[in-house]
């Protein structure tokens, strides 16, 4: 067969194939949009639940679109939004306590709403209060430190960014809608990335390879890029059956018993707001609620800004419960992200509790049941307590420092709050007239690693009485940004209590029900006790305090207080020691532990340790790394640069000399294959270059870690390529074959 090429035929060939290519492009775009829409719909099913299914009490449902329209019609708010790039985040109803500041303008329980926009131009949020009875905006303001929680409104943008990223497509394929989400889209942060300060969300998917792992996609909404992708481990189903579908069931109410009167109401994002608490007819606190729960994962390093409430990422589950304790009562509410808990990965289960006793004591409490996303984590509930002793301002604030009580005249923060206690075991004193309370945190950590922050602030407008917007991760914002030198003692005082609950993997179990026992909750307890007049300790009391620097505070629960001596690690063989010390939670050591976790792979440490620090033998380096982990840092860790203070620093006291020798000998024997290591403190050498020149390592520069790409091509794309080839061949054959039988032909 002869081919005939004429300008006309070539032009027709080009036009036909161009049209078909354009058709394929439109087809792909449409399919891409549909895929993103499906991915959004799947995530919304997890984030949102119809009111008739969720169990909302009457009045909590809200027409978000209508409220948004009212807000944007307001001229003042419109001027605030003008010339700025903004994103509508959501609108939720205000509880009575949250609406108190606008009470004079007609706001009460549920008849006003807060509208939130994110301000990409200036960073932070723009907030507005809408009067739902009169369809008008009554207040608006900006919060430069606001980083909102996850919402269905921002999902489409986040999903579009993720679906367009080459790294994500390499793992999930071109059809992101075909993937199953693993958890609710969450507001997240990374400690070594722009996501520390900027607004980011984490999208999670089940590993399409079927490993059971969760694939994380951190999306920076401000830069419109994927900041990082990574995996967290798989987890087998727990023995507990699926709980009943009671998501968003809760009960507002009031209770009077044992001399106490207190009311409570569920908020959208700040848990239960306990309000207007009195004892014996005298005011004790105006409100107490949890503004956020930071879940920090050192293996990333980063975490989530969890919120609890009827519109939060971790919603209430089951009715609010009142229990009679015999000498008091408690009000408690369970919150859980999934009705499948604990048979899920990255799921959370929290409890917010308040106890009130006949002798005037009260206790804010928080419980985390785990299991979270990974082996090791730190939970930080942000309790805000508006102290209102004797029903008004004038609260005196004193802190026990070193050997005496010191009046705190200006706003401050302090950490830790479990050490340096008074002879009676107290850290903080707040009183007004003859109403005195002493405060201390009960030590509940089985290893005695309790930590917490106190922030003491003057109560001022728009500093937390209204709905609290979460701040940048790992910064304790809010409340840290509100400490600005204002007067404290003698004013209306707000106490923020932020305990730090460290999970334990391996004995003893804590906040980590994996692999057994199935359920090991951890609990933070703050005691507030009535007391007499404040007095300074005597010389005899100070002498006794120095002899026993960690007194055991009285507790009303059977929870045993740990001793000041760190709990020893059990075991004599290396495998048992490693298990009980939790080494395998961060490191892979031959057949022990998991790869790609917090710390470096130690499979070849026996070969590489001798080259890490000049002048130090392999045995010396390994021993020091176990006992003094911050002395030198390894050149690289699985999720980026190795960070200091991640590894426990108490093994010198928890491991016997014999156990240390056993562990060092075992690590020296680990001589698997590994490339020539870089010297500690030096850059990565070229291939074949020996490691040398070690120095103590400062915190290294940040290098983003992403999942490795794959060669996966979707079946749909393959079909499209096939069709394109068919059209190409057919059009070429039809246009260029010589139909003249070898005779010259004219124009066609």
Tell me what you see in this structure:
By secondary structure, this protein is of the alpha+beta class. It has four domains: 54-143, Nuclear Transport Factor 2, Chain: A (Roll), CATH 3.10.450; 155-232; 253-547, Copper amine oxidase, catalytic domain (Beta-galactosidase, Chain A, domain 5), CATH 2.70.98.20; 572-708, Orthogonal Bundle (Cytochrome Bc1 Complex, Chain D, domain 2), CATH 1.10.760.10. It has 13 helices and 28 strands. The strands form four sheets. Strands 5, 6, 7, 8, 9, 10, 11, 12, 13, 18, 21, 24 and 25 form a 13-stranded antiparallel β-sheet that branches. A nine-stranded antiparallel β-sheet has the order 14-15-16-17-26-23-22-19-20, with no helix packed on it. Helix 1 packs antiparallel against helix 13 (715-736). It is globular and about 110 Å long. The two termini are 19 Å apart. Mean pLDDT is 81; it is low at 551-565, 675-716 and 744-748.
CATH level-3 fold name of the largest domain: Beta-galactosidase, Chain A, domain 5
* Major sheet description: 13 strands, antiparallel
CATH class of the largest domain: Mainly Beta
The number of distinct helices, counting runs of at least 4 residues, comes to 13
Q: Work out the number of β strands.
A: 28
| Share of residues in strands | 25-35%
CATH superfamily of the largest domain: Copper amine oxidase, catalytic domain
Structural class: alpha+beta
Shape: globular
Summarize the structure.
The protein has 748 residues and is an alpha+beta fold. Helix content is 20%, strand content 26%.
């Amino acid at each position: 067969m002869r081919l005939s090429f004429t300008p006309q035929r070539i032009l027709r060939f080009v036009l036909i194939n161009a049209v078909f290519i354009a058709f394929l492009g439109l087809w792909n775009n449409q399919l891409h949009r549909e895929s993103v829409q499906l991915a959004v719909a799947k995530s919304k099913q997890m984030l949102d639940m119809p009111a008739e299914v969720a169990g909302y009490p009457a009045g909590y449902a809200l027409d978000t679109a209508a409220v948004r329209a009212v807000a944007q019609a307001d001229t003042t708010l419109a001027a605030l939004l003008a010339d700025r790039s903004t994103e509508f985040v959501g609108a939720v109803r205000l509880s009575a306590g949250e609406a108190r500041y606008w009470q004079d303008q007609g706001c009460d329980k549920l008849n006003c709403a807060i509208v939130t926009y994110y301000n990409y131009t200036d960073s932070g949020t723009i907030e507005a209060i809408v009067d739902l009875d009169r369809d008008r905006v009554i207040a608006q303001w900006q919060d430069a430190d606001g980083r909102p929680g996850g919402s269905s409104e921002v999902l489409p943008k986040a999903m579009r960014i993720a679906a367009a990223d080459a790294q994500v497509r390499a793992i999930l394929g071109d059809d992101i809608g075909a993937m199953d989400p693993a958890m609710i889209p969450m507001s997240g942060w990374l400690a070594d990335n722009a996501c520390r300060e900027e607004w980011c969300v984490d999208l999670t998917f089940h590993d399409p390879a079927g490993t059971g792992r969760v694939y994380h996609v951190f999306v920076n909404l401000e830069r419109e890029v994927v900041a990082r992708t990574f995996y967290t481990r798989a987890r087998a189903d727990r023995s507990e059956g699926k709980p009943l579908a009671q998501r968003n069931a809760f009960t507002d109410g009031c209770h009077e018993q044992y001399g106490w009167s207190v009311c409570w109401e569920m908020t959208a994002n700040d848990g239960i707001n306990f309000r207007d608490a009195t004892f014996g007819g005298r005011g004790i606190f105006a409100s107490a609620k949890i503004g956020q729960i930071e879940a920090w994962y050192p293996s990333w390093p980063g975490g989530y800004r969890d919120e609890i409430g009827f519109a939060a990422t971790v919603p209430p589950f089951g009715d609010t419960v009142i229990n009679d304790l015999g000498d008091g009562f408690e009000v408690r509410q369970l919150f859980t992200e999934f009705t499948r808990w604990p048979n899920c990965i990255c799921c959370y289960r929290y409890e917010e509790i308040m106890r009130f006793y006949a002798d005037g004591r009260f206790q804010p409490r928080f419980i985390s049941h785990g299991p979270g996303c990974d082996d090791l984590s730190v939970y930080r509930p942000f309790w805000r307590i508006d102290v209102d002793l004797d029903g008004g301002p004038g609260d005196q604030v004193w802190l026990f420092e070193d050997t005496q009580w010191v009046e705190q005249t200006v706003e401050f923060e302090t950490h830790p709050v479990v050490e340096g206690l008074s002879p009676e075991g107290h850290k903080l004193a707040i009183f007004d007239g003859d109403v005195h309370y002493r405060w201390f945190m009960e030590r509940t950590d089985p290893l005695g690693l309790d930590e917490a922050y106190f922030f003491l602030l003057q109560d001022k407008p728009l500093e937390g009485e209204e709905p609290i917007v979460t701040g940048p991760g790992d910064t304790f914002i809010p409340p840290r940004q509100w400490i600005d030198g204002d007067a404290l003692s003698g004013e209306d005082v707000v106490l923020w209590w932020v305990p730090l609950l460290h999970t334990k993997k391996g004995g003893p179990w804590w906040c980590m029900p994996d692999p057994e026992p199935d359920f090991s909750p951890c609990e933070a307890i703050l005691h507030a006790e009535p007391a007499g007049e404040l007095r300074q300790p005597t010389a005899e009391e100070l002498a006794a305090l120095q002899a026993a620097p960690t007194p055991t505070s009285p507790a009303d629960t059977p929870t045993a207080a740990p001793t000041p001596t760190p709990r020893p690690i059990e075991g004599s063989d290396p495998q048992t020691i490693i298990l009980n010390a939790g080494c395998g939670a961060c490191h892979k050591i031959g057949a022990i532990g998991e790869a790609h976790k917090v710390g470096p792979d130690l499979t070849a440490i026996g070969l590489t340790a001798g080259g890490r620090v000049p002048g130090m033998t392999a045995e010396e380096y390994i021993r020091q790394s176990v006992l003094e982990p911050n002395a030198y840092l390894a050149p690289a860790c699985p999720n980026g640069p190795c960070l200091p203070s991640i590894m426990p620093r108490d093994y010198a006291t928890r491991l016997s000399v014999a156990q240390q020798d056993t562990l060092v000998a075992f690590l020296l024997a680990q001589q698997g294959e590994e490339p020539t290591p870089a010297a500690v403190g030096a850059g990565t050498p070229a291939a074949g270059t020996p490691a040398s020149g070690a120095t103590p390592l400062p915190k290294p520069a940040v290098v983003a870690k992403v999942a490795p790409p794959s060669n996966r091509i979707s079946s749909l794309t393959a079909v499209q390529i096939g069709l394109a080839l068919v059209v190409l061949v057919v059009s070429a054959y039809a246009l260029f074959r010589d139909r003249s039988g070898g005779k010259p032909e004219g124009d066609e």
